[in-house]
Amino acid sequence: MAFGAAGVAPLAPDAADLPVVTITEELALPDLSAQINALRKTSAPFIVEERVRPGDNLWSLLNRMGVHDADAANFLRRDVRARTLVSLRSGARLQASISPEGKLLSMQTLLDSPGNPNNATNLVLEKTIDGFSSRLTEVALEPRVEMRSGQISSSFFVAADRAQLPDTVTEQLLDIFAGDIDFAAELRQGDYFQVIYESLWHGSELIRSGRVLAAEFHYNGNHRQAIWFGTGDGQRGGYYDASGKSLKKTFLKSPLPLSRITSGFAMRMHPISGEWTQHKGIDFAAPEGTPIRATADGAIDFSGVQNGYGNVVIIKHGPVYSTVYAHMSRIATDRRAGTRVAQGDVIGYVGSTGWSSGPHLHYEFRVNQEARDPSTIALPPAVALSAMELPQFRKRVADITHRFAVMSPNPVTLASR
Ligand SMILES: [Zn+2]
What residues contact residue 169 under an 8 Å CB cut-off, 6+ apart? Predict the structure, then answer.
């Protein structure tokens, strides 16, 4: 866009500055090596900070930082703690102190802390008289609250992207509303959403996005809210609507979060035999390999090949209900008969095994072994908060409602952003 401004530079004296800004940014990376070379001429160690780019490995990263040090490379290969650096995710930040000869003096980076999502682990490598040493220290991250809103123009993903929602937040939204909103079929142009989530910082560095604290969708004439309510240490809890009813349904609306129904529970001509029969399930179109989720908690009743179904998993949810997932390309590991699954667990992947004309999921909802249309069945209601929890929850709702109101849920202003 700044290049477009270059064309009008003679008309507006200020505009002449714009391309200069752009060029400075573009030259920033090649310039680094010149800076490093310039610094080499001095004798003091210098500090380099780099981010892991897609396709990077530790060695290409060190090379870019100007580290040429065989001893350091050996240590990084050998040391258990240092080896975690080899699998750094893209975007991770590394700081190093380097001698003018390119020898590594120290290096540090923040890693995910496995036990506590609010912490990070600081990994420090240091050169000592006896060689290199490494140590790990826990760092408490500072939580901050972020607010975003977006409007649907084509799809939820495009809107989420434009609203600069981190991927982990988008994924959480899909999960939270999985029992209420069919993201592939129900959202229309002009629908909008608002979300409040936590982000975790270390000083001025954003380490990762955390939990969604509240979200709301205005779609298709409907309005859905989700408010996180934690219990005990705050790590356990769930999402509730404004009245305190849990959003966790006994059954998800769909075993695939983003797919469209290609054949519902109705009479149809069988795609292979050509005969008119009752289609005893729902077909979801999705690319081969798409993960399939258990729609409810239960125990695997059957897992294997059954002629027309191909690779199929059948889950029993108590004495009355069971669900069937057919034509899988493969069944997920450890999904043998008898094992327990939780709602949302991946049980297999979309494929085209058995009598199938192309990759899709054939899903059946059975009541007392009989395939039924899930949209016509009254399922057990969701759990609600207790009378003890409600007063505290209502305070929370009032606070969230205020924040959403402040966020200006006006689709017109949002569209122009
Ligand atoms: Zn089918």
Answer: 148, 160, 195, 197, 209, 212
- The residues, ordered by sequence, that sit 6+ positions from 348 with a Cβ below 8 Å of its Cβ are 291, 292, 311, 313, 325, 328, 329, 330, 331, 332, 335
Flag whether 360 is in a domain: yes
What does pTM read for this prediction?
Answer: 0.62
310 Cβ contact partners less than 8 Å away, ≥ 6 residues apart: 326, 327, 328, 351, 352, 353, 354, 355, 356
> 289 alpha carbon to ligand 1 midpoint, in Å?
17
Q: Looking at residue 369, which CATH number applies to its domain?
A: 2.70.70.10
Helix (H, G, I), strand (E, B) or coil at 246: strand
Give 285 Cα–ligand 1 centroid separation in angstroms: 10
Ion ligand 1 residue ranges (Cβ < 5 Å): 281, 283, 362
pLDDT in tens, 121-134: 899 999 998 889 99
Mean pLDDT across the chain: 82
